[in-house]
Automatic annotation (TrEMBL):
Protein name, per record: Methyl-accepting chemotaxis protein
Keywords tagged on the record: Cell membrane, Chemotaxis, Membrane, Transducer, Transmembrane, Transmembrane helix
GO biological process terms on file: chemotaxis; signal transduction
Chief place where the protein resides: membrane
Ranges for domain Methyl-accepting transducer: 403-639
Listed SUPFAM superfamilies: Methyl-accepting chemotaxis protein (MCP) signaling domain
Organism listed in the record: Quadrisphaera setariae
Length: 654
C-alpha cells in the first residue's frame, strides 16, 4: 500500500478502478436481479398461460361431455315422461355416440321400473341384464358401435358413475378409472347427470370420455422445454402427466399440495417448491367442471430453466463488465500518466533547484490550457519572482559590503584623527602646564619685581610666546575636533544607509518567505534561504544600532571638546593680552605690583583652566578613538554578514 500513499497516479488509477468496479458490480447486480425478476415473471406468466390453455382445453373436452350428458338426461326425462320406448332411447344414444367421435361411450341407467315399468319383459335382452332395467351402454367397438349392459352400477366404487349422481341428484365428473371396453382396459372418465322426473331422480345419463387424448395433450405440454404438466382431479388422482406421475394414483409431494390448494380455493397457485430435491416453479390452475367438480392442471418448471436466460444475461454482463473494467484500467493508466506527467516534470525541476545548482532560470511547459498548464505557468512566475528576489538580495549584499568597507575606512580615518588630536592635546596640556608654572613663578617673583624688571620683561616675553603657541595649538585642536565631528556625521549617514539596506533586505526576505509559502512544498528551499537572509538583515540592523550609539557618543564628546577648546582659546587670548599689558607697563611695575599680583593670580587660575580643558580634549579624543574602533568592528561584522548573504544567494543561478 506504500505505493498508493506515494503516487498520485496509483491513487488516481485505484480510485477510478474501485469506483468503476463498484459501479459495474452494482450495475451487473441490478441487471442480474432485474433480469431474474423478469425471467421469473415471464416464466410465471408463461406457465400460467400454458396451464390455463391446457386447463381450457381439458375443460372444453370435459365440460362438453358434461353438457352432452346433461342434454341426454333432459332428453330421456322428456322421453320417459311421454311414454317413449327403449328403442327410441337406444336410437338417441346410438346416434349421439355416432355424432361424437371423441366419446368412447354413451349410456343411461334407470332405477328398477322407472323407465317404462316393463323391466320383467326385457330381462336378459340386448342392452340389459337379469334385472330387465334399462342400463344400455353404447360404445365404440373398433369402427362400429355396439351395446352392452352396464356392470357394477350398484356397487360403490366401481359403480360411482351411477351411484353418486343418483344419490346426490347432482351432476358429477367421475375420477378417471380403467374400464374394459371391447376387451381392452381404457382410462376414462364419466360425466354424469341425473334424470329427474316429477322432482325425483329416476336414472342417470352419462358420457364416457377417454382420457388418452388428454393424457397426450398434458404429456406434450413442456413449458420452456424443461417444464412438465400434470392433470389431477379434485381428489388428487393423476389423469395425465408428463412428469412421470403414475396415472390413476394420487399426486404426492409439493405439486400434489399445490394442486389440492388450487382445487380447494378455486384460485391459481404460483410458488417455488422443492421437487425431487430441486427448486421448481410450480403453477397450479383450477379447472371448473360443471357445477360441482373441479380439477387442476399443475405445471412445474425447474428454476434453473426459468433463470437460464437470466443467468446467461448475467454471465454476459459480467464478461462485458470485466472487459469494460479492463479497458477503463488501461484508459485510466494512460490518462493518469498524461495527467501526472506535468507534475513529475515540475517535481524534477524543483528537485534540481533544491538538490542541484539552484538554477532559477529553468522553465516548464505552460502551453496546455488545463490545470497542468496553469500550474506550469504559476511555477514559471514563481521562478521569475524568486529569481528577481535573489537578484535584489545579491545587489543588497553588494551594497552592504560596499557600505561596510566605507564604514571601515571612515572608522580608520576617525581613529587616526582622534589619535592626532590626542597627541596634540597632550602637547597643549604640556604647554598649558608650562604657562601655569611661569605664571606661578611670576607671582613668586612679584616681590622681587622692582629689582628684576629685565627678568620680568624676559619672562613676559616668554609668556607671550607660550600663549601664542597655546593659541595656535588650541586652534589646531579645535579644527581636529571639528573634523572629528564631521567624521561622526559621515559615519551616522553611512549607518543610516546600512540600516535602510538592512530594512530593504528584511522586506525582500519577507517577500521571499511569502512566495515560498504560496508555493507549498516546492518553496521550502526558498523559505529556508529567505529565513537566513532575514536573520542576517536583523543582525545588520542590530550592528548599525550599536554603531549609531557609538557615533552619537563621539559627536557628543566632540561637541564638549569644541566648547572646551573655545574656552581654552579665550583664556589664552586673555593671557596674551595680559602679557602685552605686562610688556607695555614694565616701567610701571613698581606702582602696580599689587595689581600684577592680582593679575598673576587670575593668570594662574586661567592656566589651571587651560590645563583642565586640554585634558578634557585628550579624554574626548580617546573616546573618539574608542568609538572609531567600535565602528570599525561593526563594519567588519557588516562585511562578514554581506559575505554570508553573497554565499547564500550564490547557490542560485539567476
Amino acid at each position: 500500500m506504500q505505493i498508493f500513499r506515494r503516487s498520485i497516479k496509483a491513487r488516481l488509477v485505484l480510485s477510478v478502478v474501485v469506483m468503476l468496479a463498484v459501479a459495474l458490480v452494482a450495475l451487473v447486480s441490478v441487471i442480474s436481479a432485474r433480469t431474474q425478476a423478469m425471467a421469473r415473471e415471464a416464466a410465471y406468466r408463461y406457465a400460467d398461460e400454458a396451464s390455463r390453455n391446457a386447463a381450457a382445453q381439458v375443460q372444453d373436452r370435459v365440460v362438453t361431455a358434461l353438457d352432452t350428458a346433461r342434454s341426454l338426461s333432459a332428453t330421456l326425462s322428456g322421453l320417459t315422461s311421454q311414454g317413449g320406448t327403449r328403442a327410441q332411447a337406444d336410437a338417441i344414444e346410438r346416434d349421439l355416440l355416432a355424432a361424437s367421435p371423441e366419446y368412447l361411450g354413451v349410456w343411461s341407467a334407470f332405477e328398477p321400473g322407472a323407465f317404462d315399468g316393463q323391466d320383467a319383459r326385457f330381462v336378459d335382452t340386448t342392452g340389459t341384464d337379469g334385472t330387465g332395467r334399462y342400463i344400455s351402454y353404447w360404445y365404440r367397438d373398433g369402427a362400429s358401435i355396439a351395446v352392452t349392459p352396464l356392470t357394477d352400477y350398484e356397487k360403490p366404487g366401481p359403480g360411482d358413475y351411477y351411484v353418486i349422481a343418483r344419490n346426490t341428484g347432482e351432476e358429477k365428473v367421475i375420477d378417471p378409472y380403467l374400464y374394459e371396453v371391447g376387451g381392452q382396459q381404457v382410462l376414462l372418465t364419466s360425466t354424469t347427470a341425473p334424470v329427474v322426473r316429477d322432482g325425483a331422480v329416476v336414472g342417470v345419463a352419462g358420457v364416457d370420455l377417454p382420457l388418452s387424448a388428454v393424457q397426450e395433450q398434458v404429456a406434450a405440454l413442456r413449458p420452456l422445454g424443461a417444464g412438465r404438466a400434470t392433470l389431477v382431479t379434485a381428489s388428487g388422482v393423476v389423469v395425465g402427466s408428463g412428469a412421470g406421475a403414475e396415472i390413476g394414483e394420487p399426486l404426492a409431494g409439493a405439486t400434489g399440495t399445490a394442486a389440492k390448494r388450487a382445487v380447494e380455493s378455486g384460485k391459481a397457485v404460483n410458488e417455488v417448491v422443492e421437487v425431487d430435491g430441486r427448486p421448481q416453479r410450480v403453477v397450479a390452475v383450477p379447472i371448473d367442471l360443471g357445477q360441482t367438480d373441479r380439477w387442476a392442471v399443475v405445471i412445474a418448471i425447474p428454476t434453473s430453466t426459468v433463470l437460464a436466460d437470466a443467468n446467461s444475461v448475467r454471465a454476459t454482463s459480467i464478461g462485458l463488465a470485466a472487459g469494460a473494467l479492463l479497458l477503463a484500467v488501461l484508459v485510466t493508466v494512460v490518462i493518469a500518466r498524461r495527467t501526472v506527467r506535468p507534475l513529475e516534470l515540475l517535481r524534477d525541476r524543483m528537485a534540481e533547484i533544491a538538490d542541484g545548482d539552484g538554477d532559477l532560470t529553468q522553465r516548464v511547459d505552460e502551453s496546455s490550457p488545463d490545470e497542468a498548464g496553469q500550474l506550469g505557468a504559476a511555477f514559471n512566475r514563481f521562478q521569475a519572482k524568486v529569481g528577481g528576489t535573489v537578484r535584489s538580495i545579491t545587489q543588497a549584499a553588494e551594497r552592504l559590503s560596499e557600505t561596510a568597507t566605507a564604514v571601515d575606512r571612515v572608522s580608520t580615518d576617525l581613529r587616526s584623527t582622534a589619535s592626532t588630536t590626542s597627541e596634540r592635546a597632550v602637547l597643549a596640556s604640556r604647554s598649558a602646564q608650562d604657562v601655569d608654572g611661569s605664571i606661578r613663578g611670576l607671582a613668586r617673583a612679584n616681590d622681587e619685581l622692582a629689582a628684576s624688571i629685565s627678568e620680568i620683561a624676559s619672562s613676559a616675553s616668554r609668556a607671550s610666546g607660550v600663549t601664542v603657541e597655546a593659541v595656535t595649538v588650541a586652534g589646531r585642536a579645535a579644527e581636529q575636533i571639528d573634523s572629528l565631528g564631521r567624521s561622526g556625521a559621515q559615519i551616522s549617514a553611512v549607518v543610516d544607509l546600512i540600516n535602510a539596506i538592512a530594512q530593504q533586505t528584511n522586506l525582500l526576505a519577507l517577500n521571499a518567505t511569502i512566495e515560498a509559502a504560496r508555493a507549498g512544498e516546492a518553496g521550502k528551499g526558498f523559505a529556508v534561504v529567505a529565513g537566513e537572509v532575514k536573520e542576517l538583515a536583523l543582525q545588520t540592523a542590530r550592528a548599525t544600532g550599536d554603531i549609531t550609539e557609538q557615533v552619537q557618543a563621539i559627536q557628543a564628546g566632540t561637541q564638549e571638546a569644541t566648547t572646551s577648546m573655545e574656552q581654552v582659546r579665550s583664556v589664552v587670548d586673555q593671557i596674551h593680552e595680559h602679557n602685552g599689558t605686562i610688556a607695555s607697563a614694565v616701567e610701571e611695575q613698581s606702582a602696580v605690583t599689587a595689581q600684577m599680583t592680582s593679575t598673576g593670580s587670575e593668570a594662574a587660575a586661567a592656566s589651571s583652566r587651560v590645563v583642565s580643558a586640554v585634558d578634557e580634549v585628550a579624554r574626548v579624543a580617546e573616546q573618539a578613538s574608542a568609538g572609531a574602533r567600535t565602528a570599525q568592528s561593526a563594519a567588519q561584522q557588516l562585511t562578514a554578514i554581506a559575505g554570508d548573504m553573497r554565499q547564500l544567494v550564490a547557490t542560485f543561478k539567476v
